[in-house]
Amino acid sequence: xxxxxxxxxxxxxxxxxxxxxxxxxxxxxxxxxxxxxxxxxxxxxxxxxxxxxxxxxxxxxxxxxxxxxxxxxxxxxxxxxxxxxxxxxxxxxxxxxxxxxxxxxxxxxxxxxxxxxxxxxxxxxxxxxxxxxxxxxxxxxxxxxxxxxxxxxxxxxxxxxxxxxxxxxxxxxxxxxxxxxxxxxxxxxxxxxxxxxxxxxxxxxxxxxxxxxxxxxxxxxxxxxxxxxxxxxxxxxxxxxxxxxxxxxxxxxxxxxxxxxxxxxxxxxxxxxxxxxxxxxxxxxxxxxxxxxxxxxxxxx
Length: 301
What we know:
With 301 residues, this protein is of the alpha+beta class. The protein has helices at residues 31-39, 48-53, 60-69, 73-80, 194-211; strands spanning 21-23, 27-29, 94-105, 138-148, 152-156, 160-163, 168-169, 177-181, 186-190, 219-221, 226-229, 232-235, 243-251, 255-258, 264-266, 273-276, 281-284, 287-294. The strands form 5 sheets. A 5-stranded antiparallel beta sheet has the order 10-11-18-13-16, with no helix packed on it. Strands 3-4-5-6 form a 4-stranded antiparallel beta sheet.
């Protein structure tokens, strides 16, 4: 009799009665993968994000790409990014909606109540209260953390924070927080499973790139040193010459770099430049102006 295999980790059963459990669709899941899926609050079924949370990190992008290639972009948006129970701007998608906690100074918390809808968030209604820098006189504030393709919002009873997506710090080891760093302030939002939070953001970027013609792979050359790149995948040095580039986001929807060893790094809006060495692969899901500064960092000092 053939052994049953877990469809998530591909492990085989080691005993007659301790094998993977059969789930909907004729798939099987082992006890370990089932436990991981349940820990993320996901239903135990064979679906995209269940595959992602049980996968090895090196396999995540490949799984996303394979899934996106074989499904309709609009159907994926409707399935994985439904409208939340909050008023949003027309055409805005909700990438994430999770409970979050930030620790701030008590004296910074307004006595009045804040707005409750994203449509009401503007310069007059945003407070942007940062992390407390001291241990005494602080308070933990609970709220909802919403991410859209336009911004990151923290909406609580008494105040609202709103951040540009380029100030979020990704690719971190911690899985219990979303960290936002601006040139002058830090905001730490404690959540459960920030790795899933960023997986959802990443997959949305891939869907958006497909809808906006990622396959077109267009580079607009302005002069010898200045170019604009649009959604696409660029190999160094095949598509772009190696070196250090100054970056300006025209549409900051994601700029991701894999080095020759397969290590991934994201561009952040508050970075002055990026270094693209030979063997690097750049995946652009937004639109960025690049200015070549030199072959290496020593050339621009």
